[in-house]
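Here we describe the complex-level prediction in full. Unlike the single-chain runs in Section 2.1, the two entities below were treated as one system.
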Amino acid sequence: MSAAARAAFSAFAVGVACGAVAAPGDDPLAWLTRAVQAARTTTFAGTFVHTNGDRTSTVRITHAVRGSEEHERVEPLDAPAYEIVRRNDEMYCYFPDAKTVKLDRRTTARFFPSLFAAPVATIAASYDVKLGATEHVLGYDCRWIRLDPHDTMRYAQRFCSETTTGLVLRAKTLSEQQQVIEQYTFTDLKVGPGAARVDLRQIFEARVKRWISDAKPLDEAQSAQTGWSVSQPPAGFEKITELKRPLAARAQPVPQIVFSDGLASLSVFVEPNSPQPRSAEVSSENGTTSFFVHPVGQYVVTVLGEVPLATAQQVARSVVHKP
Amino acid sequence: MTEQISSLMDGELEAQDAERAIRSCCADEEQKATWLLYHAIGDTMRGQAPRDFARPARVIAALQAQPTVLAPKRRIAATAFKVAFAAAASVATVAVVAWIGVQGGTAERTDAVVAKGASNIQPVANKTTVVAPSVTVDEQAYLTAHRQLPSPELYRPVTNRAAAPAR
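The structure predicted for the assembly as a whole is:
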């Protein structure tokens, strides 16, 4: 482990332990480390707009930290009435009209401003991390953290990290032509213990008492050897999980292999090439998300991820049966 | 009972309820007609020719009495793929709720249905319409799985009751 990586790792550990990291000076990795933690350890409430390709959505998010408990409420504003409430690692989905609640204990899904999937040392292996200008956003000062990829297999990213707490107020993903292809921006925001106060807890507890919660999901995705592997994953992409996942309208769970470089991730799915066999490759791109479908005899490989299409293509074409 | 049949078709019933619904639906002529009717509508909205079963005249009559459904036409495979992808991407931010909403039947998509009565058919029509824009809805499942969001198979619908265990 390099000295830099060691420093980054210890800073990561400190962030976990203390819930906040002191002002990180001019060290880009320290800024990144603090931004990773701030999404979990900061109390805030706000509304953000997410644009990916030609799609835009607006979401209200309230995130409260009470001791060791993390509560989060996520409401899409331009959709039918429903919301997510997350308590630590349990995610509840509410449908107010139907008075129905659904629970998933195993989900790892997190939403903006939590965008990082790995310790900063992993991210720094694939991206140059630099500090940019300071900007004034919604009454807060935030400093841009610039992540430029070492190669063309992933996109450049920019995070504007609030100078006091480290919370990410804006995030952008850039194409190779430096055009913004995905963006998250808070349009209103309150940060600090007063921002979420009690209403989150009240809503949560009132509903859990009133409605049934489903403590046991029907099926669980099983970690498993799928019998497939990727012979040429792009540099920096590590396999983070391999499983057989139940999917809609399938008799059998579908093999899925997930790769990540700490920021960008992609999934490989392999299914029988039936009942309407594909004979040609198909691809699609929208914003940061690429699809690449590659038929291999009696199977069809689908690669999907927040990566350039060329990356999805390389992965799809190098999927092989394990010996 | 009509609701039971609707739920049965959507795979939302527990084993016992499903068995009861199946038994009831084949024993009763009226329920049987409803069952056939729902399948005929579902098939049509998915762009398939309705299944080749003997349709009683009353099913035909019931079909003719249904609201006009403004579902997009079926496209060629490549285009459909993109359409499915676009639809999936639109819910990517909070795909979890959008997806579950569809499955739970609470995501009303009345914009695609010209409602003129026939309330008994509405739940099925709504649900089917959600997947109607494409024959390749599988890509949406991929996107949901990729983002490690919960997929509908992982859930049972649960409902209001007086004394849920406080967890």
